[in-house]
Input
Amino acid sequence: MESKKVNFAEKMKEFMRKYDKNADGRIELSELAQILPTEENFLLCFRQDVGSSAEFMEAWRKYDTDRSGYIEANELQGFLSDLLEKANKPYEEPKLQEYTQTILRMFDLNGDGKLCLSEMSRLLPVQENFLLKFQGVKLDAEEFNAIFAFYDKDGNGFIDENELDALLKDLYEKDKKEMTIQQLTSYRRSIMNLSDGGKLYRKELEIVLCNEPPM
Output
């Protein structure tokens, strides 16, 4: 047992010597990025330049004009430019092009020129990525239709913020998950950025809650 402790301590010293370039006894973000696989390295660095999930959704809605849950690859550079501007992060054109090409390689794996919201949301810092919170409560088409019809009492094809609050609470209670008031407010704000003048239509909510984006 003692030999294992000594071996671990030696490995930690070797690790720190290799990656703690400024010898301050801590691994900084730039140092950590050298350790991670290329994709995780990129995500770690890019997330430092991204603002809130609300800003992400606002930029997304500008380009996903048909509310399909996808944007086209040729719209990606404009989307990233808007996202960085909203976060007040200055960038140079070569860096923007580098971001664009890297994200295309990471997310357009089948080369069909479409980028999915659920995948692209990985660009958000984890604490801002509300879509991750819903991975455990994804609905199939039949479940979604039933729950949307229940909250769209008047059958006008959309729900408002108050109805969305009730829907989110019920979903979490159904899956025996806890959600704080702060989380509820954050999720609602982000989802409502997909709405049209405060009206959250069926197609837009499908993007968040369904197993697959609507076709």
Notes: The first helix runs from residue 2 to 19.
